[in-house]
Prior knowledge:
By secondary structure, this protein is α/β, with parallel strands linked by helices.
Amino acid sequence: MNKISVVINTLNEEKNLPRALESIKDLANETIVCDMHSDDKTTEIAKKFGAKVILHERTNYVEPARNFALSKAAGEWILVLDADEELTNSLAGQLREIADRNDADYVLIPRKNIIFGKWIEHSRWWPDYLVRFFKSGGVKYSDKIHSPPVVNGRGLKLPAKEKNAIIHHDIQTVSQFIEKICRYSDIQS
């Protein structure tokens, strides 16, 4: 059985992190939470769930810390999960089977985006495929915001079905929406 490391990057995610960690408890052989010096109880919660906590300097977006976190993972397979995301039991089981079959190097997973409490099933919001599960060393993320990762080897694309999706609890309030737009606009300009 191949070992699976789950990597979660965080900054002030005490409200979201428990749901994410609960969803991977039967999948992960190792959980790494890479925190950017949170001001809340994020690291305490991570440790309570048995995660290994590592620290990275605070940045305005996750990509600079992501490769650092990946370099600390010991598993043959790695799942990258955001703190505001969770796995279904069905998806966790599929990922375990893929790792054990070892017939792909990376997996494109659909993501179910929940915005203002509603699943956005149209436009680019669904199936919103992401490379989030891959063999160690097979994927490298850019330090540029929202850049797709560089992948090597054979890919597997899961069908765009709800049971195969990472659930993303994205923007919940108008103020979160405005703050996110302003932050990303400043970075990208």
